[in-house]
Amino acid sequence: MSIEVKHHTNEKVVLSEIEERVVRLDFSNASSRHAFDAELLGQLTQHMTLLSKRQVAPVVIIGNSSGDRVWSSGHDLKELSEDRDPLAYGKPIEKALRTIRGYPNVVIAAVSGSVWGGAVDLVMSCDLVFADRNAQFAITPSNIGLPYSTSGLLRFFNNLPIHVLKEMFFCAKPLEVERAAQYGVVNQVVEIGQLDDATLGQARHLATKAPLAIRAVKEQLQVLEDATPISVSAMERIAEMRKQACESADFEEGLLAFSERRPSQFYGR
């Protein structure tokens, strides 16, 4: 049964209780093209954690209702000047992604506009993705010299053909929404102006399903997805390569070039 919509403003994240079992979380960081800084990610994680503790965890829609052309510019690169590896296990973005993947009900990403860097990882961590025809997805760590994490790559590896994955990570060019839907990254593409209605309709439908059954299936799928074996020697080798890249002059140059709005000059050192 529909209930009165309640809005709880918590600075960069707004929680809207649409119905008893349907909740929407809208993020906003307009001064940085809706970048995911530590504050925003912390608020998102807190909301998801509290919602998961309800007797029946509601279906969650994650979106950005600003109407801007950029859904999110990804991880806030200004914070990288002090944190050279934002993708480590205990960092804010990884905590937020784990909270979304481990949430005991369905999480839907509602995407309008371009999605960049770590924001694509957040979309991939949701259970369903609805997008309008303005949406596009770009993975951009190669633009600044940031080595992506193994866990992050596995999320894409399990959802994209290998050559499309390499194209996205090597070239950092946007994947248009029609092509993203072709590869199964997007569940449904809707016309501009119809995203909210389509997403809410799906959420309401999901809210009528058995929550314990959904929770059990979601947990099983996550276990199966995480079951890819990696040898200790491979993990050590990868860790050393990531350490070298994070400490490199190229990474410093990538961050400086981004702040100065100019092309990076990389030398492989």
Provide a short characterization of the protein structure.
The chain contains eleven helices and eleven strands.
Task: Describe the fold and architecture.
The chain is an alpha/beta fold. The protein has a single domain (2-225), classed as 2-enoyl-CoA Hydratase, Chain A, domain 1 (Alpha-Beta Complex). The protein contains 11 helices and 11 strands. The chain has helices at 38-52, 92-101, 118-125, 141-144, 150-157, 162-171, 177-182, 195-207, 211-225, 232-246, 249-260, and strands at 2-10, 13-19, 22-27, 59-63, 70-72, 107-111, 114-116, 128-132, 136-138, 175-176, 188-190. A 7-stranded mixed beta sheet has the order 1-2-3-4-6-8-11, with helices on both faces. The chain has a 4-stranded mixed beta sheet with strand order 5-7-9-10. A hairpin with a 2-residue loop joins β1 (2-10) and β2 (13-19). α2 packs parallel to α3 (118-125). 35% of the residues are buried.
Strand order of the largest sheet: 1-2-3-4-6-8-11
Q: Which outline best applies?
A: globular
**Using only CA atoms, what is the Rg?**
18 Å
Main β-sheet description:
7 strands, mixed
What is the CATH topology descriptor?
Answer: 2-enoyl-CoA Hydratase, Chain A, domain 1
Topology:
Blueprint: E1 2-10, E2 13-19, E3 22-27, H1 38-52, E4 59-63, E5 70-72, H2 92-101, E6 107-111, E7 114-116, H3 118-125, E8 128-132, E9 136-138, H4 141-144, H5 150-157, H6 162-171, E10 175-176, H7 177-182, E11 188-190, H8 195-207, H9 211-225, H10 232-246, H11 249-260
Parallel strand pairs: 3-4, 4-6, 5-7, 6-8, 7-9, 8-11
Antiparallel strand pairs: 1-2, 2-3, 9-10
